[in-house]
Amino acid sequence: MRQCGLLCENARRRTSGGGFVMLSAFSAGVRIAGVEAGSVRKAMRLALAAALVALLSSCATGRNPLAKWERSRNFNERQPMLIVLHYTTEESAEKSLHTLKTANSKGPVGVHYLLGRDGRIYQLVKDGKRAWHAGPGRWGTITDVNSASIGIEIDNSGHDPFPDVQIDSLIVLLRDLTTRLRIPPTQVIGHEDMAPTRKIDPGPLFPWKRLFDAGFGVWPDESAGDPPPGFDPWLAMQAFGYPLEDRAAAVRAFHHRFRGMDGTELDEHDLRILYALTRPPQPEPAPPAAEPAGLQPQQENIVE
């Protein structure tokens, strides 16, 4: 596509500049086979315009004019595998919409969806497109989060509780996205989870447990108990997905999500949470064995 763009730009410049040698020669009054130079110049300009239209059309379809088009069926659209939740820190959804369609102090920023405090859902970027919402960071092995995710901004200052109607609307949207785009419902994270050194949203007030109860994200199983001897919490943090370049920042993000508080050091409660989040899946308990059916008493024939 970049090659196509360069070709199109070059074509625009050449036609707009009028710098073709042959055209300038015709303008000097040269005759070719008895035809006026002006007529030839007009015909050539029409031909060049037609060629330019064809070139621009090929750019719009994503086909490279340098190559012969041979269609293949072996492709698909961008497939998101992650949903990233943000808060806006703006005063209203209207202001957030303006920022998300233009830029903030650091440059252009975009997102697929915005959720108003009244529960209204706005879409700004098509699901199949790469919105500029995540920025530098990673989650597990995903290093280009923008290319692998859907971004959802939630209209919130960062200091206020999230209204019930807003979370209800978020749950409806998550159900739609995970079903329609086949994103695993567990793969819903916060911006601070993938970029803990830069971000703190959606923050400690966000109701992750409520989201889990609705079927999205993850939450520790309280019945998991204490971790076994030799349990390494940092390996567990990394296995769960947190980047550990700055361990204190990662712990703060972890605390925001699973304990609703600040803090940059792990304690015994954190270790139990990490063990519950990362232990191997436990087999379902077997149902109790049915008691063997006793012999049915034989019905007697009653003779009167």
List keywords for this structure.
Lysozyme-like; 304 residues; 39% helix; disordered C terminus; elongated; alpha/beta; 11 helices; five-stranded mixed beta sheet; 5 strands
Blueprint of the fold:
Blueprint: H1 2-17, H2 21-27, H3 37-61, E1 82-87, H4 93-101, E2 113-115, E3 121-123, H5 145-148, E4 149-154, H6 164-180, E5 188-190, H7 191-194, H8 208-213, H9 233-240, H10 247-258, H11 268-278
Parallel strand pairs: 1-4, 1-5, 2-4
Antiparallel strand pairs: 2-3
Strand content: 5-15%
Shape: elongated
The span between the termini is 99 Å
CATH superfamily of the largest domain: Peptidoglycan recognition protein-like
CATH class of the largest domain: Alpha Beta
Q: Which consecutive residue ranges, at least 5 long each, have pLDDT under 50?
A: 1-9, 11-35, 299-304
- Summed up, the domain count is 2
Q: What structural class should be given to the helix and strand makeup?
A: alpha/beta
Count of DSSP strands? 5
Strand order, sheet with most strands: 3-2-4-1-5
Mean pLDDT: 84
Instruction: Tell me the series of helices and strands, N- to C-terminal.
Output: HHHEHEEHEHEHHHHH
Global Rg: 31 Å
CATH topology assignment of the largest domain: Lysozyme-like
Number of helices: 11
| Architecture per CATH nomenclature, i.e. the level-2 architecture of the largest domain | 3-Layer(aba) Sandwich
Report on the biggest sheet: 5 strands, mixed
Describe this protein's structure:
The protein is an alpha/beta fold and 304 residues long. It folds into 2 domains: 2-61; 82-278, Peptidoglycan recognition protein-like (Lysozyme-like). Helices cover 39% and strands 7% of the residues. It is built from 11 helices and 5 strands. The chain has a 5-stranded mixed beta sheet, with helices on both faces. Strand 2 and strand 3 (121-123) form a beta hairpin. Helix 1 (2-17) runs antiparallel to helix 3, helix 2 (21-27) runs antiparallel to helix 3 (37-61) and helix 9 crosses helix 11 (268-278). The longest helix has 25 residues, at 37-61. It starts with a helix and ends in a 26-residue tail after the last helix. The model is unreliable at 1-9, 11-35 and 299-304 (pLDDT under 50).
